[in-house]
Every structure is written in C-alpha cells, then in structure tokens.
Amino acid sequence: MALTKKKGTKATPKLPDINALKQVNSNDAGAFYNSLFSAQHKVEYANKDIALSNIRTNPDNEIFRNLDEEDDIRILSEDIKRNGLMHNLVVFPTEEEGREVYVLLSGERRYRALKLLVEEGDTSWQIVRNCNVITTELSDNEKKVLLYSANLQVRGGLNDEAVRRKAVSEFIECLQKEPYNMNRVDALKAIKSVSSVNPKTIDRDARLEDKLKGSLKELLDAKFLSRSECETYLRFDDEKQEEIGQKYQELN
Question: In what order do the strands lie in the sheet with 90-96?
Fold first, then answer.
C-alpha cells in the first residue's frame, strides 16, 4: 500500500520491506506510510486536525503496549513540549455512539505523551494538528498488518522475548488470511523482511509459540524456564509436555 491523496487502483497488497519501515523515525512527519505497501494498492488519506478527546487507542496494539514504561512516555512528552510533534498520528475513522471518532494505526506512544501534557495543564495539545486520516476502506486484517509491520520494526526488534514470540505468531495468522493468503513458510519469510530481528530467532519464536504446550509455555512466559530448556521439550507430544510442565510447577 502506498499512502496517497490520488485515487488508485486496488490490488493485493504486499508486506512492506525493512527499508520502507526504517523510515518511520527518520522521514517527514507521518510520511512513512507512503512506503508501506506496493504502489499498486493505493491508500487515500486526508490531513485533519482532530480533538485529542476524539482519538482512541487500538485494541490490536495491546500486546506492544505492555512494553511501554511510564518513564518512556514522560520523556517523550518532554521532547514534544520542547520540539513539537515530529511525526503525525495515523488514524482511521470509526463510529462510536453515533459520532465519528478516530482509532490509531500509528503513534500510540505519541498520543499518550500528548494526553500527559494536557493532563498536566498544557491545553495547546487538546487539538492534534495534521493527523493522517486513512479514508480508503481497509479490512480489519489489513489494519492489523499495518500496525504489526510498524511495531516489529520501530520497537528495536522487540527485546522482550515473550512479546516478540506472541507477536510473530499472531502476525503469521494475519498473513494467512485475506487479502494476503500466504502459507506459513511465506508468512515467516515476509516477517523476516520486516523485522530487524535475526531470522533464526524469528524461526525459533514461531516454533516455540506453535509447538510448546500448556504449562511449559506459561513457565517460559514467566521466565521460570529458558528458551533453550523449552526447545528440548518440543520433541515430545502434547501429553508428555503437559506432564513435564506439571512437574516443574510442583517444583516452583
């Protein structure tokens, strides 16, 4: 998808490559969506000033939201106060109780920083200027792919192993649905092209999330067991894995 104000011909979108997504923190405000997908599938948008109170967070971003510390948001708010909003928010319109509101596709941390500024008395940010409002109709799955593509690149490769593992697994599911219709192998290749994470690490993430079962996965998420330990148990069937997990829980 290429973000454009001109009317374009719709075609099956391709996943953005890593070079496109690297522009997120270095390009002009909000312009990185121009490079996200193939130019054959154009996404129209409009610039609009939006009341901060009319912007909503995206439920699909919850898995990444857990990575954000309050101190990070405060530091970002201080930077915005000094230097202004350097990257536009990207949103899509939806209806809520009979009125139009806007859901974030890019910029939740910036949005939270703006909310903090307003809460602390800086009313100049009650209106967010020049939001990029996507006006082309996109499926829920296309929106989720846009969101996951950006997050996998801009969050430093997702250093939290549990979050990255779950994100990779969910992303694979998205790419196996319309309009992408990829098989699992091609979905993994596409994710590797987006993420700065080592490709072998992504393979391990996907394998663990897919094949590790029950209690063992809970113990891995809780960091009671290491990745290496859990990988040794993948050769066992589900029943044996659950038995091993229960033994560990008794020890714990």
Answer: 2-4, 42-51, 127-134, 90-96, 99-106, 55-56
Cα angle for residues 158, 132, 112 (degrees, 5° grid): 50
Rounded distance between C-alpha atoms, residue 113 and residue 70, angstroms = 10
CA distance 27 to 29: 6
Closest CA to 38 of 133, 165, 179, 229: 179
Count the neighbouring beta carbons within 10 Å of the beta carbon of residue 42.
21
Cα 174 from Cα 41, distance rounded (Å): 18
- What percentage of the chain carries pLDDT values higher than 70? 81
How far is the C-alpha of 107 from the C-alpha of 96, rounded, in Å? 20
Is residue 8 within 8 A of residue 49, CB to CB? The reply is no
Local structure of residue 1 (DSSP, 8 states)? -
**Alpha carbon distance 131, 102 (integer Å):** 10
- Summarised one tens digit per residue, pLDDT across range 122-154 is 999 999 999 999 988 889 998 998 888 878 777
- DSSP letter at 17 equals P
10 Å Cβ neighbour count for 47? 12
Per-residue pLDDT at 175 exceeds 70: yes
Q: How far apart are CA 169 and CA 207, in angstroms?
A: 9
Residue-level pLDDT at 114? 98
55-56 and 42-51: which strand pairing? unpaired
Average pLDDT of the chain is 83
